[in-house]
């Protein structure tokens, strides 16, 4: 493109809240054939809310009768956990975490009048959850892998987890002192324009994919809601593996635009053919990106590609 055309494209972009980090990026965007969206905070609002608390009694799921102790004896009323106990353990364990999932649990507990103190110790396990000490006992809050790696069998909660996940919720297991204690779930809202962004991209012949650390079932439920094919979902991708996932997609010969908002996404934004940071994204993401979308709107991804297209066609 001529410097004048580049100037016009960049200006039109800026007027539409689409910031290109230079003329070469403006030229590149039109060649994107695959858009890879991060899920949380990009396709969804990223504002989680606590929706469910399910008790597993620390021993036996309530649904199965509920009061059998591991040795076959009866649990006393005092030993038996209730919803507030499960939520309290989870909230105290999560109180030191910045993760949106954690904040929703803490807020949800406080809204129920639970006093959320600080854990005696606390360890963040990235992509898995939290390990903490509460009331002198070890509390785990996180996914199946976190529990398994810490010697707790998540199997008794399988059905509950699957039910919540197929509703698009992120379900987290809670263990106390080596026993499964319950499940808590957070839900996020899909952004209003996400569906229209996906359909407009597909109309242009651009493939749309989703990349997330969240589990497969939740990811697919959200994908279905916004119109992304199930086979285009890459779920359970650890933060450190997101850039490898984008590279793998590009190794198929695709020109990928990665769209993300979080610190997690920065390496993936950096390796993508075009890295796009969205809206309220973190400084780290914006730094790593080639394009910044000032508004929180996935439809602006389509705008970015259109502006690139229009700018370069005009001067041909
Ligand atoms: P995302 O890519 O959606 O931001 P992460 O990579 O941060 O997800 O986390 C992946 C999964 O690990 C989550 O879906 C959740 O099951 C679990 N997890 C991560 N952090 C926490 C936490 N603080 N509390 C509970 N579970 C967590
Ligand atoms: Mg995110």
UniProtKB/TrEMBL annotation:
Coiled-coil residue spans: none
Location relative to the cell: Cell membrane
Family label: Belongs to the cation transport ATPase (P-type) (TC 3.A.3) family. Type IB subfamily.
Name of the protein in its database record: P-type Cu(+) transporter
Protein's organism: Halolamina pelagica
Upper taxonomic lineage: Archaea, Methanobacteriati, Methanobacteriota, Stenosarchaea group, Halobacteria
């Amino acid at each position: 493109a001529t410097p004048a055309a580049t100037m016009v494209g960049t200006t039109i972009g800026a007027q539409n809240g689409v910031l290109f980090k230079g003329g070469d990026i403006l030229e590149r965007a039109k060649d994107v054939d695959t858009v890879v969206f991060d899920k949380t905070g990009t396709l969804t609002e990223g504002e989680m809310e606590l929706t469910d608390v399910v008790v597993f009694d620390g021993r036996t799921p309530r649904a199965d009768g509920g009061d059998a102790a591991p040795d076959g004896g009866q649990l006393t009323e005092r030993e038996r956990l209730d919803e507030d106990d499960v939520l309290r353990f989870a909230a105290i364990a999560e109180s030191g975490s910045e993760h949106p999932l954690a904040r929703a649990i803490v807020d949800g507990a406080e809204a129920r009048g639970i006093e959320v103190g600080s854990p005696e110790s606390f360890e963040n396990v990235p992509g898995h959850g939290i390990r903490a000490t509460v009331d002198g006992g070890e509390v785990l809050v996180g996914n199946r892998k976190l529990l398994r790696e810490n010697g707790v069998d998540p199997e008794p909660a399988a059905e509950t987890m699957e039910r919540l996940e197929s509703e698009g919720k992120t379900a987290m297991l809670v263990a106390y002192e080596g026993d499964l204690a319950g499940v808590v779930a957070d839900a996020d809202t899909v952004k209003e324009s996400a569906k229209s962004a996906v359909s407009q991209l597909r109309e242009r012949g651009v493939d749309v994919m989703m990349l997330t650390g969240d589990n497969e079932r939740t990811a697919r439920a959200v994908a279905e809601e916004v119109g992304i094919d199930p086979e285009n979902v890459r779920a359970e991708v650890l933060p450190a593996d997101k850039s490898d996932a984008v590279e793998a997609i590009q190794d198929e010969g695709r020109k990928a635009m990665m769209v993300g908002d979080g610190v997690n996404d920065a390496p993936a934004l950096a390796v993508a053919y075009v890295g796009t940071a969205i809206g309220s994204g973190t400084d780290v993401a914006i730094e790593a990106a080639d394009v910044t979308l000032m508004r929180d709107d996935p439809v602006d991804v389509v705008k970015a590609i259109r502006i690139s297209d229009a700018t370069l066609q005009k001067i041909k």
